[in-house]
Design goal:
- It contains 22 helices and nine strands.
- The protein folds into two domains: about 240 residues, 3-Layer(aba) Sandwich (EreA/ChaN-like  fold), CATH 3.40.1660.10; about 100 residues, no CATH class.
- About 45% of the residues lie in helices and about 10% in strands.
- By secondary structure, it is of the alpha/beta class.
- Helix 12 crosses helix 13.
- Strands 1, 2, 3, 4, 5, 6, 7, 8 and 9 form a nine-stranded mixed beta sheet that branches.
Length: about 475
């Protein structure tokens, strides 16, 4: 699909919508050209090489293509029921001793990607010692609710179905993960715990319990008495209840509630800061503050920042020392996006502030995290929450990374780490359909994807997921 044709293709993915907006303003016929100084990406000891890179772009451009062609490792199957993992040895070697592995996806309806991620989860759990699976879903429900859950298979199945977004829990491609693998792991000596990091707090457990639990917490900490009056405090609790219920009962959160909720959350946040509160309630309140931001760009930025902070909390408190798998989208796990050069205003608005970027600003997590993006060549995609919406994914650019992968490879893994080390983290941009199923032209943002992701999982034929009946 050409760039101009792609811009007319509808999608509900936030990043895709925004990227299409960039297309409408920048025109067609963009080609990869030139290079950009990505000095902020470089380790300090390598900064002296940055100037040299600017003069070596053609060589490095050829080297990245050669690296992709010769180092994409064939993955034999996406069948997660298989206990054979020899074909994933390269993945394990690349991850090494990382404590956090982030698994992306181009859209929340990519069937083969769901299958691949399920198999990777199983491999990481059984062979690499990962014991926690964190979803892009309700932080409160998947922390507090999970802690209180009876660890029986049927209870686990029901809980996951109600507290993780339906794009995954109702997908036939995730059935094995939710219906069998996770519940059955609690019948073994190595259970796989579930948690969430999303600031969108409205799934069933939060809908049922959050208002009352928050009330109990605020009263016990003496924060409730800091409200101007008992009536003001009750109005605040009603506003909390309304914003959580809005997804199920449109109109539950009335416009008149917004200021009451904003003022109340600010009061609570300030009280928590003054008390040096480091409990999960601090993250719940900040998640609610991010959740009620409604301006499109600001809302995305607030959400990604809250997700990064929630993930950090989980790793430093709830699951301190544990090895954690993060299940989310490509657009959220992208790192160093704050340093991407761009002349496109729309690109800046939607790509600049992402969870992965916030998360790896801490040197500890920069060292301990492996970011795995997903890329596909052709096929269809489509989410269950917009069914029956299905679309044909854009064809790769003729000079795109997808065309460099040998045609004989249906599924493959590519590690950028050796390439980055060999050439001192080269910043030469190249084209890739990412973070969604569209290519961002070089004139909008010349991106060195080897610095955004640590590795890529390649799927030649994408298919829209189907509903689990």
């Amino acid at each position: 699909m050409s760039w101009c044709r792609a811009k007319r293709q509808h999608t509900t993915d936030m990043a895709s919508v925004a990227t299409c907006g960039v297309r409408l303003r920048t025109g067609c016929g963009d080609t990869l050209r030139g290079t950009t100084d990505y000095a902020p990406y470089f380790p300090m000891k390598l900064l002296s090489t940055a100037a040299c890179l600017l003069f070596c772009a053609p060589t490095f451009a050829q080297d990245i293509r050669s690296h992709v062609t010769t180092n994409t490792v064939r993955v034999a199957t996406l069948d997660a029921t298989s206990d054979e993992y020899a074909d994933l040895a390269a993945v394990g070697q690349a991850i090494g001793d990382a404590q956090v592995v982030m698994l992306g996806e181009q859209d929340h309806g990519d069937g083969p990607t769901f299958q691949a991620k399920t198999r990777l989860v199983k491999y990481l759990h059984e062979r690499k010692g990962f014991t926690v699976l964190a979803f892009e879903s309700d932080f409160y429900g998947l922390t507090t609710g999970w802690d209180k859950l009876a660890r029986q298979p049927d209870s686990i199945r029901h809980f996951l179905q109600q507290n993780i977004f339906l794009n995954w829990t109702r997908s036939a491609d995730c059935r094995y993960l939710f219906q069998q693998y996770i519940p059955q792991s609690f019948q073994t000596g190595s259970p796989l715990n579930i948690t969430g990091f999303d600031s969108q707090l409205y799934l069933l457990y939060s809908y049922t319990h959050l208002k009352q639990d928050l009330d109990t917490y605020l009263v016990s900490q003496g924060i409730a008495s800091r409200f101007p009056s008992a009536a003001t405090y009750q109005a605040f609790l009603e506003a909390v209840e309304g914003v959580i219920a809005e997804q199920r009962k449109p109109g539950a959160f009335r416009p008149s509630m917004r200021k009451t909720l904003e003022d109340g959350l600010q009061l609570v946040s300030q009280a928590q800061l003054a008390a040096h509160d480091t409990s999960a309630w601090r993250r719940v309140v900040e998640s609610l503050r991010a959740f009620i931001v409604k301006d499109g760009v600001a809302a995305e930025e607030a959400r990604d920042k809250a997700m990064a902070d929630n993930l950090t909390f989980l790793l430093t408190h709830q699951y301190k020392g544990a090895k954690v798998i993060v299940w989310t989208a490509n657009q959220h796990i992208m790192k160093h996006t704050d340093q991407l050069p761009s002349k496109g205003k729309d690109f800046d608005k939607v790509m600049r502030h992402k969870m992965g970027t916030y998360f790896v600003q801490d040197p500890l997590w920069a060292r301990q995290t492996y970011v795995l993006g997903f890329a596909s060549y052709q096929g269809t995609a489509g989410r269950l929450d917009t069914a029956p919406y299905t679309y044909t994914v854009q064809a790769p650019d003729v000079n795109g990374l997808e065309t460099w992968v040998p045609a004989s490879i249906a599924y493959g893994f590519l590690d950028f780490t050796p390439y980055n080390k060999q050439f001192n983290y080269p910043a030469t941009p190249f084209l890739l359909k990412s973070p969604s199923h569209y290519t961002i032209p070089a004139r909008v943002a010349p991106i060195a994807w080897n610095l955004v992701y640590d590795g890529l999982f390649f799927i030649r034929d994408m298919q829209a997921t189907t509903k689990n009946e």
